[in-house]
Structure to design on (536 residues):
C-alpha cells in the first residue's frame, strides 16, 4: 500500500469570502469575489464558501451561477430555519436552496445560553430547526454541513445539549458537523479534549473545526482539533475575520504538508506544486484588498526567511537548515541573507534565476543592478510585488531590453463641465507623443480618470508594435501613500493581462501620482513587447 493511500484525508474549507468579509475595513466587490474564488480553487482548497445568498446584491449575484472550479465545491452559507417558521416559509432557507451551489453550510446555536439569550427560543425548537434544515437541503440534493456556533463554550455549560445539536445534524444526514470556537477563547488542550469526547458520538471523518483567533491560538486550536480527530478545517487566507480573525490557512496548509506529525498520517488536496504558490496567493489577496502584506507572517511573510548580520547569517550561509524550519521554496518564498554586498549579490542572482533571465556571474553590470535595486527600494519601490518591473530593471541594467519607442511628451487635463443633458461631469483627457523608428505618433484619448485616459492614449497607436499590444488590458490599479501630507510619495501598482490570460504587475513611485502611474503603465507595455519577442 502506498504512503498516500495509507493516510487519512483531511479537508480544507475556506471562508475568506464570508467570514473574512467580516474583517473591519474589508469589502469585497463581486469582481473581487470571483478572483479570490478562482485563486482558492487553484490552490487546491476543497470547499470555497462564497457568502450568504440574499444578504446583499453581490452575494446574491455571486450565487446566480456556479464558478467554473476545477476542484473546489462551491458552498453557500446561511441560518437554519427561524423559530416559528416552516422550511417552506423561511426566505433565508429558500435563498440557500435556490443558490447555484454544490454544498450548503448552515449555522445554528449549540449553546443553551445562546439559544436562551440571543434567540429567545427553546432547546427543543433549536434542535427541530437543525433537523428540518439539514433534511430539506439533503432532499434538494446538496452536500450539507452545520456550523455549531459557540460549541466549545456551550459544551462547558451544557455538554448534553451541545452534543445533541451536533448529533441532530449528523443523524439528519449532514456530511460535516463543524465545531466552532466562536468567541475564540478556548485553549488547545480544551479543544482537543472536547473533540475526543465528541468523536465518541460522531465519527471524526464527519467533524470539522472553525476557530477564531482572539487568543492568538486559532491555528494551534485547529491543529489540536485535528489531533482530537476532526477531518475538516475551516479558515481564511491571511487569517482574515472579524475581531482578531480566523484560523490562518496560510499557516495551516504548510504545517499539514511539511510537518512530520501531520504529513505522515494525513493527506490534503494541496499538491507540492500548489503549495509552492502559497506566497503568491497570500499576496494576491493583499493586493486585491490594497493592504500591505504582513512581512512577519509565518511561511509567507517577506521576512519569514530573512537573516541579518551576525552568527545566524554566518551559519545559514553554510547550511540553511541551521535557521530555517522548512525550505522557503516549498511555499513559494525565498531566502535573504542581509549580511554583505556578496549576500546581496546572491539574492539578486537567485531572483534572476527565478525570472529566467540569462546572466554571467562575472558580469560587472550585476553590481550596478544590485546598487540600483537598493537605491530604488530605499525610495519606495517594492519589486517583490511587481514581478514584471523587476524583470525589466534587470534586463535594462544587463543591456537586454530593446529601445522599442520613446515617449517624447504626455499631457493630462481634468476638467469639470456640463454635458449635453445639463449634468455636471468630470472628464479626463490625455495626449501622448511617441517616437517610433524616427516617426512621431500623437494619440489623444478621454477616460473616466487621468490614469485611464493615459492608458488608452499610450496604447492607441504604437506604430509597428501595435499588433503586439492589442490583447493587453489593465485589470487592476492600486495606490499606496508611503508617507503623510499632500507632498507624499506615492506607490502605484498596476496589474495587466494579455490575450492568453497571463497576468503581471508593474510599479511606479513618485511624489506625483500621475508620474508614478505612467511609470507603471510604460513598464506594462514594454514587458508585453519583451514577452512577445517583438523585434527592435
Amino acid at each position: 500500500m502506498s504512503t498516500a493511500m495509507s493516510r487519512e484525508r483531511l479537508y480544507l474549507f475556506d471562508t475568506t469570502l464570508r467570514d473574512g468579509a467580516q474583517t473591519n475595513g474589508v469589502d469585497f466587490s463581486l469582481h473581487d469575489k470571483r478572483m479570490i474564488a478562482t485563486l482558492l480553487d487553484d490552490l487546491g482548497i476543497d470547499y470555497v464558501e462564497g457568502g450568504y445568498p440574499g444578504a446583499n446584491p453581490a452575494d446574491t449575484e455571486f450565487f446566480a451561477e456556479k464558478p467554473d472550479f476545477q476542484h473546489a465545491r462551491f458552498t453557500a452559507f446561511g441560518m437554519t430555519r427561524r423559530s416559528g417558521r416552516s422550511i417552506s416559509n423561511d426566505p433565508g432557507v429558500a435563498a440557500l436552496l435556490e443558490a447555484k451551489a454544490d454544498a450548503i453550510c448552515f449555522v445554528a446555536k449549540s449553546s443553551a445560553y445562546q439559544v436562551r439569550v440571543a434567540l429567545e427560543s427553546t432547546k427543543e425548537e433549536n434542535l427541530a430547526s437543525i433537523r428540518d434544515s439539514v433534511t430539506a437541503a439533503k432532499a434538494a440534493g446538496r452536500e450539507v454541513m452545520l456550523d455549531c456556533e459557540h460549541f466549545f463554550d456551550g459544551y462547558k455549560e451544557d455538554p448534553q445539549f451541545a452534543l445533541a445539536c451536533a448529533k441532530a445534524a449528523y443523524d439528519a444526514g449532514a456530511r460535516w458537523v463543524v465545531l466552532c470556537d466562536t468567541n475564540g477563547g478556548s485553549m488547545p488542550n480544551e479543544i482537543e479534549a472536547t473533540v475526543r469526547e465528541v468523536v465518541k458520538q460522531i465519527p471524526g471523518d464527519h467533524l470539522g473545526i472553525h476557530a477564531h483567533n482572539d487568543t492568538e491560538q486559532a491555528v494551534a486550536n485547529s491543529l489540536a482539533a485535528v489531533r482530537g480527530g476532526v477531518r475538516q478545517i475551516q479558515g481564511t487566507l491571511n487569517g482574515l475575520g472579524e475581531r482578531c480573525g480566523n484560523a490562518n490557512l496560510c499557516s495551516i496548509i504548510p504545517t499539514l504538508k511539511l510537518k512530520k506529525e501531520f504529513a505522515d498520517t494525513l493527506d490534503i488536496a494541496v499538491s507540492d506544486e500548489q503549495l509552492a504558490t502559497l506566497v503568491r496567493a497570500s499576496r494576491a489577496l493583499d493586493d486585491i484588498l490594497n493592504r500591505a502584506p504582513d512581512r512577519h507572517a509565518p511561511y509567507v511573510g517577506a521576512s519569514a526567511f530573512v537573516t541579518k548580520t551576525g552568527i545566524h547569517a554566518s551559519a545559514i550561509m553554510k547550511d540553511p537548515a541551521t535557521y530555517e524550519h522548512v525550505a522557503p521554496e516549498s511555499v513559494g518564498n525565498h531566502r535573504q541573507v542581509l549580511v554583505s554586498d556578496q549576500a546581496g549579490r546572491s539574492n539578486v542572482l537567485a531572483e534572476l534565476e527565478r525570472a529566467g533571465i540569462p546572466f554571467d556571474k562575472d558580469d560587472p553590470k550585476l553590481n550596478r543592478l544590485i546598487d540600483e535595486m537598493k537605491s530604488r527600494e530605499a525610495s519606495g519601490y517594492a519589486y517583490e510585488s511587481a514581478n514584471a518591473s523587476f524583470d525589466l530593471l534587470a534586463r535594462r541594467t544587463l543591456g537586454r531590453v530593446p529601445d522599442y519607442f520613446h515617449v517624447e511628451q504626455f499631457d493630462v487635463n481634468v476638467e469639470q463641465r456640463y454635458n449635453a443633458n445639463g449634468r455636471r461631469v468630470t472628464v479626463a483627457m490625455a495626449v501622448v507623443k511617441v517616437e517610433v523608428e524616427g516617426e512621431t505618433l500623437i494619440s489623444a484619448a478621454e477616460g473616466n480618470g487621468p490614469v485611464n485616459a493615459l492608458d488608452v492614449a499610450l496604447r492607441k497607436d504604437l506604430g509597428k508594435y501595435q499588433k503586439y499590444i492589442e490583447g493587453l488590458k489593465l485589470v487592476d490599479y492600486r495606490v499606496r501613500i508611503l508617507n503623510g501630507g499632500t507632498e507624499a510619495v506615492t506607490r502605484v501598482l498596476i496589474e495587466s493581462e494579455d490575450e492568453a490570460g497571463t497576468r503581471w504587475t508593474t510599479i511606479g513611485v513618485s511624489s506625483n501620482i500621475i508620474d508614478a502611474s505612467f511609470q507603471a503603465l510604460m513598464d506594462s507595455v514594454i514587458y508585453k513587447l519583451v514577452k512577445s519577442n517583438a523585434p527592435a
Notes: The two ends are 58 Å apart (CA to CA). DSSP finds 20 helices and 18 strands in the chain.
